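Re: weekly structure request thread

Next one in the queue (391 aa):
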Amino acid sequence: MTSVLDRISILPSSAGEPVSRLLLFLGFILWPVYIFPPGYPQPISFVFVILFLMTATKISGGGASPFRSLQVQLWLIFWCYATLVNAFYALIYEDFFVLRYPAFYLQCLLSIIFIKHFLDVDTRALHVIYYGTAASLGMQALVYAASGYEAVGRETLLFSNPNQLGFYGLLALSMLTYLQVKIKANIFIFLSAVACGVLLVLLSLSKAAILSTVTLLGMLFWYYPMQSRFSWILKVSVAVVIVGCAAYMYSRTSADIELFQTVVERLSRIGQSQDDSFQGRGYIRMWLYPAYMFLGAGEGLFERFEYPREIHSLFGTVLFSYGLIGFSLLAAALIFVFSRAPKDFIVFFGPILLYSLTHHPLRQLMLWVFLVLMEHVSSRTTTEFPRLNSS
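Done, posted below.
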C-alpha cells in the first residue's frame, strides 16, 4: 500500500515540480498560522510569494500562460484600480499606510498566477491541494486538542480572531468537498478532515460561518441526491452524528457539550445584537455617503466618516471602496467562474458568498486560489484527474 506522500508525489522524482509541491503543501499547512498582528502579511503570504518568484521565469505570454485566463486578467485590472484609488487618498490625507490594502491584493494576485501555472503544468497539483487542505484541518484540530478542551468561548486557535477561524473552516470544507466530488479521495481521510472542519467552525462560534457551513452541507444533499456520490455524502452525515454522540457519551459535563450548548445559544440570538443590524455591519455608510460609490472611497481612513469602522461585507466594501468599476470587476470574475460550472459554483462557492454578506474575506488569498481552482477543474473532465485513492 502506498503512503500519502507517495500518492501526492511531493518528494523528489524525475517528473513534475517536487520543490514547488513541497512548498505548496507547506503553504496549506501554514494557512491557519497567524504570527504577525492583523493587517500584516502572514507566513502563508511569504510561501506563495516565494513560489511565484520560483516560477516567474517559466511564465510566458503564450501557451499555457496564466495571463491567458480571463479571471487572472480581471483580478490584475482590479488590483491596478485598487492601487490607483488607494494611492490617490494616501496622497490627499498623507497616510500611506492605506497602501497595505492593495499590497494584500498584490500577494493574492501573485498567488493565483502561480496556482494557475502550477495547475496547468503539474498533473499532481490537485493532490497536493487536497491533502494539504486535509492536513491543515487535522493539525488545527490537534492544536485544539492540545489546549485541553477547556475553552467554551469563541476560539481563535492560531488566528487573530474567531471570525478568521470560522471562515477558514468554511473555505477549507468547501475546497475539500469540491475536490472530493471531482477526484474521489480516500473516504476515511475525507471524513476525518470534514469532522475537523465542522469542529473548527463550531469552535469559532461565528454565526455567519456556522450558517454557511450548514448551507454547504445541505446543498450537497440537494444537488447530489441519488447519484454515485450519494454514498460518501451519507457517510459524511453518519460520521458527524457519530462524532457528536461520541462526544456526548464521553463526557456529559465536559467542554464538548458546553460548546454545543453555546453554539445553540448564540444561533438563537441572531438578529438581536447591535452587531447584526444594518448599521452594525457598516452598511449605513453607503446610505450616508452615496457619492463615493461611483469611483470609490478607498479602504481605511475610517475617521473620514460617521460610524468609523470597516463595512463588514465583501460586496459593500468593494462597492463603497472601489466604486462601480471595482464592483464590476469583482462581479465579472465571479460570473466568469459561475458560467464555467453553474451548479458547482452555487453549491461550493455559494455558501462563501453567503458568509461574505456580513464579512469581508477578499483579502484572504485562499479565496482567490479557490476561484482559480474551480476555473481549472471546470475546464477539464473528471476522467482527466487520477483518483487519489488509487494505488
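The two ends are 7 Å apart (CA to CA). Confidence is low (pLDDT under 50) at residues 1-16.
Next request, please.
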